[in-house]
Amino acid sequence: MRRDKTPPWVLVALLLAGIAAPFLFPAYILQIAILWIMVMFAVTWDIMGGQMGYNSLGNITFFGVGMYITGLVQVGLFTDIGPYTSARGGEQLVLNHADYFYGLLLGLAAASVGCAILAVLIGQTMFGLRGAYFAIGTLGIALSARELFGTWEWVGGGSGIALPVYPGYPDEKSQIFYWLCFVLAILAFMFVRWLYSTRFGLAINAIRDDEDKAEAMGIHTNRHKSFAWSVSAFFLGISGGLFGNMTGFVEPAEVAFPVVTFGIFMVAMSLLGGKGTLWGPVIGAVLFHVVKETTWTYFLGWQWIALGVIIIVNVVFFQQGIMGWLIMKFPERFGIAVDRSGSRDGGAQ
Amino acid sequence: MTVKSIEVRGVSKAYGGVIANREISLEVEEGSITGLIGPNGSGKTTLFNSIVGYHPIDEGEILFEGQPIQKLKVQKIARLGLLRTFQQTRIYSKMNCVDNMLISIPHRTAGWRDMLTPYSADDLDRAKNLLEFVGLYEKRNLISGELSFGQQKLLEFAMALMNRPKVLLLDEPTAGINPTLINGLIDRLLLANSEFGITLFVIEHNMRVIMNLAEKVYCLAHGELLAAGPPNEIQNDQRVIDAYLGAH
I need a labelling partner for A177 at 20 to 30 A (CA). Which of A218, A279, B75, B181 fits? Predict the structure, then answer.
């Protein structure tokens, strides 16, 4: 059983850092909020990609769909969606505090459940594909979702939907959404950490290592695959809802379904930190995001090249990622060692 | 009357134009050790694959404890307690030995809730005992893919026992194993049969092994059932000798 043996002080330190961050660096509050979303992206991608061996390039679908569901609930509760969107952003809902948060929370709840159900449904068509075919198939799902929403006039088509205006000062909005993103990332991490300590954790590892064997041993493979993806989708749906509200505007190509940015980042971050490990995606996300923001700020124009170099070096020379490298270098520290204490009963063999 | 564990009735299976099994009928009695021999390419593994539901059969009927199973899927059949090991050993190569064992607990009654519970202390204890049984206890925390081939084979056998099967289909359990380890493996197979009450159906090329193990042996050649009987009879059967030496 792979119960996480991280000392509690690490978790507490991380928690405190997350709580202190907006007070220490108030100017970067949105960047740090997005960092938490990135951590959540990587951690949830790794459930399928790392632990189960199903490399999905389409997880961003749930981010986008979650964003739309949240937005539609927020708008639909107070006005007719069709006329609202056909005004092409010419109007924007102004609500009071109570209505705003009622709509937001209901929207996020609908997004999480809706995306989890969607993952189960899409899974039934996708889980027959293995290896690279699954990656290509899921990429297709993400791209078609983007096209679908882009041509669906009722939800605003290519020009999107304006979300209700936050009823307060912008600083207050940043604070609120920072805490929501922070709590979401912590919840996702703790949930996944618990999940890997149950039978489910080993079962998806078994599917990764040899799915035919897992079937021959009677494991309910489809059940595990569906559950794995719906857990990812659940959290991704909420993150989409939050991100859409932080932007204030939902539009298919750049905001809701950023297939080649966020969609690829979640894979790159997990690989960088070490896929198939609990902490790898977290480390990878932090490192990747810091490098990205730094190059964006100080080497503008070179940022894509810097990210490209990281991905290439990672994939060509350093496939196991940071955590994978540590496990390879110090196996004993991770409990991978011969036990020379003799046989079970203590007797010599 | 003896109880039949597996009954194969007139099973045929062709891959395109190649007929791998032609109207094969055989029986495996409950509690017995039954052998299946035959030259390379005679259809032994195909028959195993048909029994465990790995592919649909063209004709015939397969019964497990009197119940037809030829339409069931691999996982369903495994959960009935009819398990197979692979000729090319298959283990979960990136997991350690204990995890390989734990994931192999029976899934017969597993519901949605069981998925989210941890393993019990009993499961862990049984895993360790069985690793001890096959001599892998000291290596239990090693990544299984890094074990030697013979050890992987032993691990696969232990995993099969962990699943508490009623019937175990073993595809060449001694192939690639060091001759000195083979005796130990034969003992363990016999123990699995006598102590754990598991019915064994074994594909084996090593005549010495099959003679020591099986009570009844079936011989396949060119996809057809050639002979059946106690091992010493089969060993001296002229048709079997011809099949192995290529007189056909």
Answer: A279
Residue B138: which of A1, A221, A338 has the nearest Cβ?
A338
Out of B91, B104, B118, closest to residue A1 by CB? B118
Size of interface A-B (CB pairs under 8 A): 121
The beta-carbon neighbor of B102 closest among A1, A195, A210 is A1
- B200: distance to nearest CA of chain A, Å? 16
Q: Where are the domains of chain A?
A: 8-259
Q: Is B132 on the interface with A (CB under 8 A)?
A: yes
B20-58: per-residue pLDDT in tens?
Answer: 999 999 999 999 999 999 888 889 999 999 999 999 999
Range with the poorest average pLDDT among A87-91, A331-335, B88-92: A87-91
Residues of A in contact with B117 (CB under 8 A): 198-199
Per-residue pLDDT tens digits for B204-236: 888 888 888 999 999 998 889 988 999 888 888
* ipTM of the complex in this document: 0.88
Give the rounded distance of the alpha carbon of A268 from its chain centre. Answer: 12
